[in-house]
Every structure is written in structure tokens, then in C-alpha cells.
Write a structure and sequence with these properties.
2 domains
Length: about 400
């Protein structure tokens, strides 16, 4: 007598649930739970990837991909020809005291070249009044972070006194005192910039530093932001081996390590929390299969008398559980991808429906949810969810295989 293939038996058990409606309900709930958990994981991680990229772009628009602490014109010229370097520009950062009326605050004055960096800085922040492209040498115009301007009570057009300490060649201290005009204010949405930083023309910064021709460093932009650390260190090694002075270099991963460490920790915690949804759904699969095993004890006994081995019985319930779990995973992956791709449309709709804003403009600089769907995230989420649902089938399958035909059929 030909025995039915275990796959067909498993599918038949899934379709025929008229005798146990509660088991059918739990099965549907398991599929929905797995799908929602996977979709939530994909969507949330995609949004966090978007936030991370937005944060990185804004930080690097002001700080560059890497910095070489040198004012050597030959080093600057060599960097501009180094493979992978898109742009190398001199810059000056000065620690200063700024005062207006009776208000006093510390800040960082950044000397920038509008011709080289004005456009990238202009895209990185919102400006009121002048923008970096409007800075002119000798104008003593200043574009101040909004939080710093608020602390000093300044508006565009107001004067501000700048005091920069320094050291002469003989080691004695010197101070440079200048009066600037607040030509505009900017808001980048990052405390480290909005509350301390001001932008001036590179020539004005050189005068404040007492350095009429040089710079405090060289700011680099590379063709691959993630390869910037290796690019700048490879150049530094080659420069030193060629007889140049050993120069100190640093990159964006060092300057902004705290920000990105915080983002990674948040992503890890969100992943662990949302994985609990999938775990609960997997536990529902266990409950469903246990109920099926209990309900189908006589059927299992008959299969055993027809010649099914323990391994074949296990296969029946393993396949049954995998169909339920993997169906949920596939639905969740599709739903998560659809939500991520259409989040720009869905988020405003949800805001109108529930009458609240996800990101109020008066609190957040970003007014929309950024999202970046990464294939690697979708892949490992799907693999982990598939693994969890596969593990959930093991205990019920073992329990089904342990059914003794003689004991069950004795009372039939």
C-alpha cells in the first residue's frame, strides 16, 4: 500500500481544522504575529539607517571626512593629487570667547573657503540671513549657530566682540580682539554645532589667528566616506616615507565616535525588543502544533500502523510548522519592504488620521522620517525569523513522534 508523502499529510492537517476552531485561530494569529514582527523590524531598522545617514551627512558637511593637522602647502598640493581624495582645502578652527552686551559665551570659530565649501555647507543646514556663499574676505561677517545666537541674544545684523587667545613664536601669550557682525544664523539640528560654532571667511579667521597665509589644518573629502580612514592614513604613511614630516591625522569615525556608538546601541536595543514579537509568535506556533498533535493522536497512530516511522511523523509536523512560520516571514518581509518604500506617503497619512506629528518642526530639525532599506538587514532578519520558527517546530514534532499506536488505538 502506497503511503502518502509527509508533505501532503502536513498540508492536509493544516487545511482540515473543523474539529478544533481554536487551533485554527492560533495558527492565523501565529502567521500574523510573525509577519508583524518581521515587518516592524525591517521598517524600524530602515528608519534608523536613514537617521544614521542623515546624521553622518550633516556632521561631515561641517567637519569633512578626515583632517590632516598641517599648514604645509606642499602637503596640501600632494593631497589634492592622492587617489581617492575628491577635495582638500585649508581650514582654521579657533576657540574663542564671544560677547554681546552683558552676555558672554565660548564658541568655535571655523574659517571656511566659500568657493570650495559653501555649497556643501549650504545644503547641510537651514540659514536665516546670509549663507556661507555670502562670506567675503575682510568683511568680518559671521554666521552663528542658532542656539549660540539665542544664548547671546543676537539677531542678524547685530555686532559681536570676539576674543581669541594665542601664543607667539617666543612662547608668550597673545590675544586677538575683533568686532564682527552677525550676518546670519544657521540651524543644523546638532547640539555640537548649533550651540558653539560660528562660520567666518578663511581670511578673517587667519587674521584672528595671527596667521596671514597658512592654515590650522587640511580638511579632506574622499570618494568613499567609509574608506576615508584608510585613505588618509595611507597618504600619511607615503608622505612620511617620502621624507615629509610625520603628520597627525584623524577621521570622522574618531571625531564623531560618540554619536555613532549611540546610534548602534539604539539599533541593537530596538532589534532585541522587536525580536520579542517574533519570539511570541514562534511560541504560538508551538502551542498550535501541540494542540494539533493532541487532536490528531488517533490519526498519528493510524499512520504509524501504515508503516510511518518516527522520523516520518516528525517530518509531518516539522513541515506543518515550517509552512506556518515561513508564510509569516514571507508576508512580513513583503510588508516591511512595502512600508519602508512608501513611508513618505504613509507617515503623513497616519499623522492626519491620529492628529499628531511624528517629528514636530519646533522640536526636530527633520520634519519627515528618513528611511534606507538595506538588503543585508532584510536578509538577516528573514534568516533569524526563519530559524526561530524552525526551532519552534522541534518540540511538537518530537511529541508527535512519541505517540504510542497501541495505547491510542486500544480504546478506539
Amino acid at each position: 500500500m502506497m503511503r502518502p508523502v509527509p508533505l501532503f499529510v502536513a498540508i492536509r492537517y493544516l487545511r482540515e481544522r473543523s474539529g478544533n476552531s481554536f487551533a485554527s485561530f492560533v495558527t492565523v494569529a501565529s502567521v500574523i504575529g510573525v509577519a508583524l514582527g518581521v515587518a516592524a523590524l525591517i521598517t524600524v531598522l530602515s528608519v534608523m539607517n536613514g537617521f544614521e545617514n542623515e546624521l553622518r551627512d550633516r556632521l561631515l558637511s561641517m567637519a569633512g571626512h578626515a583632517v590632516v593637522e598641517s599648514d604645509d602647502p606642499e602637503a596640501l598640493a600632494d593631497l589634492r593629487t592622492w587617489p581617492g581624495v575628491l577635495r582638500a582645502e585649508p581650514f582654521i578652527d579657533l576657540e574663542a570667547m564671544l560677547s554681546s552686551g552683558g552676555s558672554l559665551a565660548g564658541g568655535v570659530i571655523s574659517g571656511v573657503d566659500p568657493a570650495a565649501e559653501g555649497e556643501s555647507l549650504g545644503r547641510a543646514a537651514q540659514y536665516s540671513g546670509a549663507s556661507p556663499l555670502d562670506l567675503a574676505p575682510g568683511s568680518r561677517d559671521m554666521i552663528m549657530g542658532r542656539a549660540l545666537a539665542f544664548r547671546l541674544g543676537l539677531q542678524p545684523g547685530d555686532p559681536v566682540t570676539v576674543l581669541v587667545p594665542g601664543r607667539r613664536a617666543d612662547g608668550s601669550l597673545r590675544t586677538s580682539l575683533r568686532e564682527f557682525r552677525v550676518a546670519g544664523v544657521f540651524e543644523m539640528g546638532l547640539k555640537d554645532h548649533d550651540s558653539v560654532r560660528t562660520l567666518v571667511h578663511l581670511e578673517d579667521a587667519r587674521q584672528l589667528a595671527g596667521n596671514e597665509s597658512g592654515s590650522a589644518g587640511i580638511r579632506l573629502r574622499t570618494d568613499n566616506v567609509f574608506g576615508a580612514p584608510e585613505t588618509v592614513r595611507a597618504w600619511a604613511r607615503a608622505w612620511s616615507e617620502a621624507g615629509g614630516e610625520a603628520l597627525k591625522v584623524r577621521d570622522w569615525t574618531q571625531d564623531n565616535a560618540t554619536y555613532f556608538r549611540a546610534v548602534r546601541i539604539e539599533k541593537l536595543m530596538m532589534t532585541l525588543l522587536l525580536s520579542l514579537i517574533v519570539a511570541v509568535a514562534a511560541f504560538n506556533i508551538v502551542a498550535t502544533l501541540v494542540m494539533v498533535v493532541t487532536d490528531k493522536r488517533s490519526g498519528i497512530a493510524i499512520l504509524r500502523t501504515l508503516g510511518y516511522s518516527r522520523q516520518m511523523i516528525m517530518t509531518v509536523f516539522l513541515v506543518q510548522g515550517l509552512v506556518v512560520g515561513w508564510l509569516g516571514v514571507l508576508l512580513g518581509v513583503g510588508l516591511g519592504i512595502a512600508l519602508t518604500i512608501n513611508i513618505d506617503t504613509l507617515a503623513p497619512g497616519l499623522e492626519r488620521l491620529f492628529g499628531f506629528e511624528f517629528m514636530p518642526a519646533e522640536v526636530y530639525y527633520l520634519t519627515s522620517l528618513p528611511a534606507e532599506l538595506q538588503v543585508s538587514d532584510v536578509s538577516w532578519i528573514a534568516v533569524i525569523a526563519l530559524g526561530m520558527t524552525a526551532l519552534a517546530t522541534v518540540y511538537p514534532a518530537l511529541r508527535a513522534a512519541s505517540v504510542a499506536p497501541a495505547e491510542v488505538l486500544r480504546y478506539e
